[in-house]
Amino acid sequence: MNVSDAYKIYTSLRLHFTTDNYDIRSGIAPRRPKAGVKASFKKKLEVLMKQYNYNQDEFINYLVANFLNGNEWGIFENTGPEIYTEWKRVQESLTYTYTQDIKNLVFQVTKLEDAWDCSQGHPVILKEYCGKRCRLETLVILNKLYRFTTEVDEQLVLDPVWNSISRTIHKYSPFIKVEKDKFSMITHKAFYE
Question: Which option is the CATH number for 93-192: 1.10.220.50, 1.10.3720.10, 3.90.1150.10, 3.40.630.30?
Fold first, then answer.
């Protein structure tokens, strides 16, 4: 991976996470900037690439973790590596994290579908996430398994809190790899056994 590749990756991910009209899954490359990469930005990218041994996957994951955290410009500062380390920790223990979040949900609702019921306002799943008792990764996995965001999107059309989180779920989704059978079993076991 060279600086030019790193810049394309950075630009694509930045557009993916910060705009509504670009989705990295579309396969369409973002428009090229009119000017070349500034020397100072190039230097920062080189330092970052070197820090992750020019490993493209590490570089992508680093950017994803920081963009998710709203750290768009701080990726070159001291907080960037800390955010990435925490993100990696969650990824490495995703099954455990998901299991704990699902067990917590069992205490809140009797049926899984009730977790995204909006008849009383914000659904339980949103309250748990906002209360930091449920991780974003759990929301993404549940959405991959049950497509609950479609239902909630229809019911909370003008809700700014939900709209922001729903957008984040969709933007983060391509970066969470899910063994559907495994996570379905965890969910089913917690709610129905």
Answer: 1.10.220.50
